[in-house]
Write a structure and sequence with these properties.
heterodimer, A: Rna Polymerase Sigma Factor, Chain: A, 9 helices, globular, B: alpha+beta, six-stranded antiparallel sheet, 5 helices, rod-shaped
Chain lengths: ~170, ~200
């Protein structure tokens, strides 16, 4: 029994930082992010017997986190809004000086997820497709749109220039 | 995440750098997780210990009852053979010799005389073995019947602490244990006589 806990602490606990970082981007409150990570880890602990040593623990934990997040949203425990109270579609462009974090929070949840998982946490499109249970093409499409949206928020001049170049 | 577009790669790198630069304090959440995963196990461990203690107590009680049962059986047989049936044995009959025998067993020399109930007198004494332990066997008589009192220092014997009585065939038994004495009383007179002798032994010592 003690061995199982030790093993869990060695395999799963080192990832709480990454999980918390992503959870913060998904929820509107720091406490809600901690609750989400805690729930994720407890679910992981309960099913730890089924975890196969040597497989990707990080991807396994993120998959649980994402499922927990969507479950909490369905149950109404998490609000279905963009972060910082921003309305995604109508948010005006933000100067580059404004932090990336705020801009990231203005993306839709799906876009935020692929940005965090793919760009920040370094998961491949295939891994993200498995975690999110969507085709790999959907992941790539979301990633491109999320990038464009984010760049549009952070670098409006650059985005406009690119659009103009494309149109030309 | 591989990216072939250098411009895009630079943007991704800046985003990654900015997000990773944020302070993420995991102490609180890690502590909560550890408490949660350890909690049920502590309860289970506690329940396991409690169950083990209960099993041990039940086991001890069963073992203890078996020992008491054997003690009573041995005492009843001893009384039947040596007192009622008067099978040949070597007894001490002199009060001084009996007092000396008691003393050699670690009991106060006056004990044999003191625990004689009114109307009874000490007749004889010898050592015997009950349930594997040596007891001083004292025989008292009131003229119409006899009472066997088995005594020893309270160490290792299975005698229960409060006065306890039982009947085995025609023999009535009672036993008692104090800080300085363990006594088993057997008589064919009555269970009341057995209990009174046991109570008197406990009160006197």
């Amino acid at each position: 029994m003690a061995t199982r806990q030790t093993e869990f602490e060695q395999i799963a606990m080192p990832h709480t930082g990454s999980l918390l970082r992503v959870a913060r981007r998904l929820t509107s409150e720091p406490d809600a992010a901690e609750d989400l990570v805690q729930e994720t880890m407890l679910l992981a602990w309960r099913s730890f017997r089924q975890f196969q040593a040597g497989t990707n623990a990080r991807a396994w934990l993120f998959r649980i986190l994402i499922n927990s997040f969507y479950a909490q949203r369905r149950n109404g425990r998490l609000p279905d809004v963009a972060l910082n109270g921003g309305e995604v579609a109508n948010e005006p462009n933000i100067p580059l000086a404004v932090d990336l974090g705020r801009a990231l929070g203005m993306l839709s949840v799906e876009h935020r997820l692929v940005m965090m998982l793919g760009i920040v946490e370094g998961f491949t499109c295939q891994e993200m497709a498995e975690m999110l249970e969507v085709p790999i093409g959907t992941v790539m499409s979301r990633l491109n749109r999320a990038r464009e949206r984010l760049r549009g928020l952070l670098e409006p001049e650059s985005a406009r220039t690119k659009c103009a170049a494309k149109e030309a | 995440m591989n990216c072939d577009d250098p411009d895009q790669a630079g943007f991704d790198a800046r985003l990654r750098q900015a997000v990773l630069a944020e302070d993420v304090d995991t102490d609180s959440v890690n502590r909560r997780i550890r408490q949660k995963i350890a909690g049920p196990r502590r309860i289970l461990a506690g329940a396991g210990i409690a169950a083990a203690v209960l099993i041990a107590l039940l086991g001890y009680a069963a073992w203890s009852n078996a020992r008491v049962s054997r003690l009573y059986a041995d005492a009843a047989v001893d009384h039947r053979r040596e007192v009622i049936d008067r099978q040949p044995r070597t007894w001490l009959t002199e009060p001084a010799a009996i007092a000396g025998l008691a003393q050699r067993q670690g009991l106060p020399a006056s004990t044999p005389a003191h625990i004689a109930m009114a109307g009874y007198r000490l007749e004889r004494a010898k050592l015997c073995r009950l349930a594997g332990l040596v007891y001083l066997h004292l025989v008292y008589s009131n003229g119409s019947g006899e009472v066997s009192v088995f005594l020893r220092q309270p160490a290792g014997e299975p005698v229960p602490k409060p006065v306890r009585s039982a009947d085995r065939g025609e023999e009535h038994l009672a036993s008692v244990k104090t800080d300085s004495l363990a006594a088993v009383v057997v008589t064919d007179l009555s269970s009341e006589a057995a209990r009174q002798f046991a109570g008197l032994a406990a009160a006197m010592l």
